[in-house]
Structures are given as C-alpha cells and as structure tokens.
Amino acid sequence: MKIFIVATYPAMEQPIKLLIKKYKNIEIKYGIGKLEEGLKLAQNAINNDFDAIISRGGTARLLKRHLEVPIIDAKPSGNDLLKSILIAKNKKLKTAIISYTNITDGATEIIELLDLDFKIHYIKDGMDLTSLLIKLKSLGYELILGDSLAVEIASDLGFQTVLFQSSYDTIKNNIDYAIMILNQINKISIIDKIKSEFFTNELSDYCILLDNKIIYYKFNNFGKLPISFGKIINIKFNYESNTNQNLKKNLFRVDNFNIEITHVFLDGKTYYLLKFTEEKIENQYDGVYEFKLKSNLLPVKKSSAMKSIFSKIEDSIRLKKAIIMIKNNNTTLSEILNQIECSSQKYNLYIDMKEFNFSDFFKLNTKKYTFILFNNIIDPQDILKISSLQQNSTSIFIILLDSECLLTKTSIDLDYFYIPNTKDRKEDLIQVFENHINYYHDNKGFSALKVQKDIFDKNVNLLDSNLDYLIEVLIKTLAEVKSSTISYDDFMSNYKDNTSIGLDIVTENKSLEEIEKEYIKKYLVREEYNQSKVADILKVSRSTLWRKIKKYNL
C-alpha cells in the first residue's frame, strides 16, 4: 500500500515526517506544491504506482477533477479551525477570512458562536485574489485568516496573516482514512468474488466470516448483528462438525432467529456465509408488535413535574407495580420510555388492546422485553388484570390511557399520573428543543445548533400549545433556517396559535355530528385532554362529555 501527500504549505512537512516513521508497514512519501505544482507531484506519484493521494483546499479540488485514484481532502478539523480563529481573534485587528469552502467547513458556526465580526470570502476558480485583497485593504482590513494561497498573496501585500493549518492529528486521521479506503477497495474486490460464488439473489441480512472474523455484513431489517458473535462462532463450529461427518445440516435456530450457513473455497481460503431471518411476533398474534425507541429523545428533568413523575416511576418499579399514565403528548412520553428502557435489550412490546385477545398473553415469551406497553384499553377490568400480573413479571408494564374516563367509571383503586403538559415543563423546554436540534443536525445535516434562549419568555402563549405541536413547528423551522441559531422570529414564522378553537372548522357539507366531533376534538387538544376543563368550557357534565368521547372514539 502506497500513499502520497501533496503538502500545500511548508509547515506541513514536519508532522508528515513524524508520521512516516509511525507507519512502518506502509510506504508514505510527500512533496510540497499548490494547485498545478501539486497536480504534477500527484501525477508523478501515480506513475510510480501510488494508490491514494492526500492534499487539501484548492489543490485537493483540482486533483479530484483530474485523477482517478482516491483523493483524501485533509481539511482542517474543528479544533484546527478553532485554534486559528482564536489566534486571529487575540490579535484584535480587523479580520477577513479568504479560503476555499472545503477548508472553512464549520468555521461559520464557530464565528457565530464566538460572536466575531469576521467576514468570509470564498475562493472560486479563476478568482482574482490580488484585486480582492487590495479592496479589503482599502476598507481597513489588517489581518487575513485563510488558505495557504490567500495567505501567501496577502503577506506580499503587507497584511498580517494567520493560516488555517492541518495539525499532526488531522493529517494522521487522513492517513488512517486513506488506509481504510484502500482496504475497503481491496475488500470490495474480494467480496465481489465471494458474492458471485454465494449469491443467486439479493439478500437482506447476512454476514461473511473468514478466520473467525466478520469481514463483511449487511443488515437491512435488524440494524446490527441480531445474535452475539460468540453464538455465530458456535454455529460455525457445529456446521464444520456436521460437514466433516458428511451431514447436510446447515440450518440453525438461535433465540427468535433462523440462521442458514454455507461456505465456499476461494484463493485458498474458506469463507462462511450466514443468512438471518426472524419470525416476527406480530405475525403470531393480532395487536402485538415489537418496537424500538429513538435513543435521541433523552429525558430532561429540570422541572418539578418531571422530577415528580420519575420519582413515581422509580417507586412503581421498585414495588413491582404497573405504571398507569394519562397520555397527552408523545414527546414527553418518548422521554419517559427512554428513561425506563434498558439499553442492553433491543425490543419492547406494544399491545393494542382493541385487537388483542388477552387470554393469549400467557402464550407470549415476554422475558426478553424491557417493558410492555398496553394501549387502547376498552374494558376497565383489564387494568386490574394487567396490574395483578406485574408482580410476577421481569418486564415493566406500562398502561397508557388517553383520558380519565376509564378510571372514573370503575371502582378499581389504582395509582396513576398525568404525563406533564407544556406549561408544567417550562424549565425543560429549551433543552428538549436542543435535544431535537442536535438529533436533526447530526442525522439530517440541518444548519441550526441551538435555539434562542428566551423564546418562551417572549411569548408565554406558546406554553398553552401541545408540546407535540411545538416540536412539529421546530422541525419545520429547522429545515428552513440556514444560520446556527433559530431565532424567535424564525420559530414564529411557522407557528400558528392552535389555542383558537372553532374558527377553522369547515361546516359546509358536514353533518351536525361531524361538526360536534371536530369541535370537541379541538378543545381536547387545546386543554391537553383534561376532561374537567373541556366540560366546563362546553358547559356540559363530565359524564355527557365522556359519552361523546366514546361515541366519536376520541
């Protein structure tokens, strides 16, 4: 394996020399040159059978346009950018940044977070940097922070300069990345050969073993290896034993998974293919589903309401009592479930009591589930049945109720508690927002990193909205803003006051019952399913409201 580094400024030479000594089993060489000079160095390296090229900035962009081998862009890391920006900041001079976009990725967010008045100019192909720098000088700029090309010209024009440098660690990471890419290319070549031997059609979930190591895998349905690595090696051992005894067995059952194993000889080595399928529990019983939680919805527990509910949950778990929750928003419910979930177990169980025959509960293998979630209970007596089973179960039973109506119509004496509404969680809300922002920044590439801190102080009416709706508004806003901070105005541009009731109900071509259903539903949403409040507003008794909720299945 041979890697060539095109250094675009002389200071890169010292860390490269140190790294060459570190990678003794890989041939690493380098040369110093920018743009066309760098291209000549890279072309000469390819002619000498080098497998990959590392460079940065405009030179890396140029190499990618002209060369076919892997080009690794050694752009500065976040720490590199921060260090250079702080050096420029400490000089306390009027500063402009001039650089290629692939050098300054992330610099905008750092500058905004540090609240610095640094103007960024991006270098484009054919751009006259000298003219730009002369103009900046006439505007009173004294310091140029930037790429090696911009810094070189700026220095000749009498500017003070700070270079965005790629540190020892950054260059090392890029060498490691180049090694990984080359190994992957080599592996893909081998895998293609193995696939041609093994596969007659496309597989969803499988892994390939060589020398008791997984060298390749693909998991569409499971997300990760569905059984332990130790069990895989045990299957391989049993398969080898069967093969030596001329037996045909290549199907194994482990936990809830079927594993089919085959092998092939290729280039003097034996490769093993294991294919995984699972018999889903939802195919066995109506209304029973396995599900996984989103780990990003971590609980925020600053408010007294959340502290109280987690204290009750801990007491219920300790006393082996079923947890009965009156649900009014899914955002807080997800936080609570994530707190309860044991990270070592993959699945939880959801039981829809509208569809499920409760007598089948004793046929389920419930031991592997962290918690079992019961929803849509129709018969209040089922609450008592579920609670009585909790004492002898290793799982945690959670009963979700959409309103109080089931409990008010029964004499069953059970503890239950409301999931806190938006008003009760005011101290949590900024952190809840930022948890979602972080998730969507990492997974969707949205620009925002935080939200304006006083957003709920500027408009206290936001606290009257359902938290699920506020999160919907936040996600829509995230997709639109390009800055690192979501401002109050950004958020309010997508927010509609969902506390106003009835004004947007379309009555044309609707029956009186349809209008009544929509009207009741809007008040229930506004008051977060507090039936006492809704009954007072509508000037009906709670029993009348309860009957209408049952009638309209709200």
From TrEMBL:
Q: Where is the Signal transduction response regulator propionate catabolism activator N-terminal domain?
A: 25-184
A Pfam family found in this protein is HTH_8
Q: In what residue span(s) does the DNA binding HTH domain sit? A: 511-552
InterPro entries assigned: Homeodomain-like_sf (IPR009057), HTH_Fis (IPR002197), Sig_transdc_resp-reg_PrpR_N (IPR010524)
Record protein name field: PrpR N-terminal domain-containing protein
Q: What is the lineage of its organism?
A: Bacteria, Bacillati, Bacillota, Tissierellia, Tissierellales
